[in-house]
Amino acid sequence: MALVIKGSSSGQVTVDVPASAGTNTLTLPAESGNILTNDTSGTILQVVSTTKTDTFSTTSTSMTDLTGMSVSITPVSTSNKILVTGNIFVSGSSASALVVFNLVRGSTNISISTGSGSVDSTTFCDTDGMHLNENSTYSQNLNFLDSPSSTSSTTYKLQMKVTQGTGFINRRGLNDNVRAVSSITAMEVVA
């Protein structure tokens, strides 16, 4: 038996029972919106993004929250993954400093290198290796596929520190006459 819903002026939607035996339940969410009818692996279910247009600086040699670079997303399934991407414009006051970043879910570092390095992090900007100084900036990219295994609101944020001197976001070290925009985005991906 099929359920037919007719439009007020034309068209109709037919909801039919599958031919296979058994009981199937379709639960509609208690919210407005569209119904995804093809949630195959790799489908993007939702996208949330935050853009940082102001500047930030720190002299901290311990990880500190990078204000304005966090995003919250509520997965619809515990089996789905979250793809976190970002673009950070960074500069340093010293050509021999490292500006180091960690990607954190809640309070947990989720993308940390392993090994015997003296600085283990998600990503870093080597101001010496990139020939950066206080007159220039560098675009630092971020891509990480996370498995939060949760349907609760989940916050992803960036933290940063420097090995010496001052680290700057969205501006060059010399002054803030030259500025940029950084962003972080989280996308829920069907597993």
Any key phrases for this structure?
191 residues; elongated; mainly beta; 46% strand
Short description:
With 191 residues, the chain is mostly beta strands. It is built from no helices and 13 strands. β1 and β2 form a beta hairpin.
Tell me what the structure shows:
It is elongated, with a radius of gyration of 23 Å. The protein is mostly beta strands and 191 residues long.
Topology:
Layout: E1 2-6, E2 12-16, E3 44-52, E4 56-58, E5 64-73, E6 81-92, E7 98-105, E8 108-109, E9 123-126, E10 138-146, E11 154-162, E12 167-169, E13 182-189
Antiparallel strand pairs: 1-2, 3-13, 4-12, 5-11, 6-10, 6-12, 6-13, 7-8, 7-9, 7-11
DSSP E strands, number: 13
Low-confidence stretches: none
Number of helices: 0
Helicity level, as a percent range? under 10%
Largest sheet: 6 strands, antiparallel
Structural class category:
mainly beta
Distance between the termini: 32 Å
Q: What is the mean pLDDT?
A: 85
Beta fraction of the residues?
A: over 45%
Rg from C-alpha positions?
A: 23 Å
